[in-house]
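Batch job 17 of 40 flagged for manual review because the log was empty.
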Amino acid sequence: MAAADNDLTAQQWEAICAAWPGCAYCSAADVPMQKDCVLPISRGGRYTRENVVPACASCNASKSNEEVTHWIRRKKYNEEAFLMRLYKVNSATSASE
């Protein structure tokens, strides 16, 4: 992967994890988190502060390269809550840079 495709710093990842209460999708908090691209790499996404959320292994594997809102609807998760939280986390983490 080219450096330009992965400009998420360790400090940004720590801030993202601190801002989410656990998995961004299912809220699991007692398992290790993985970096998940909201817009998958295969669809033009990148590992950036605005595009990465913490996800449990189950959600990350299930979502794979699917479009996030379609996947959230299929899983019957709260789409509006996810999108609002994503906006708030992105706003908060951008202000701290």
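Reviewer: the log was empty due to a logging misconfiguration, but the result itself is present. The first strand starts at residue 34 and ends at 37. Unflagging and moving on to job 18.
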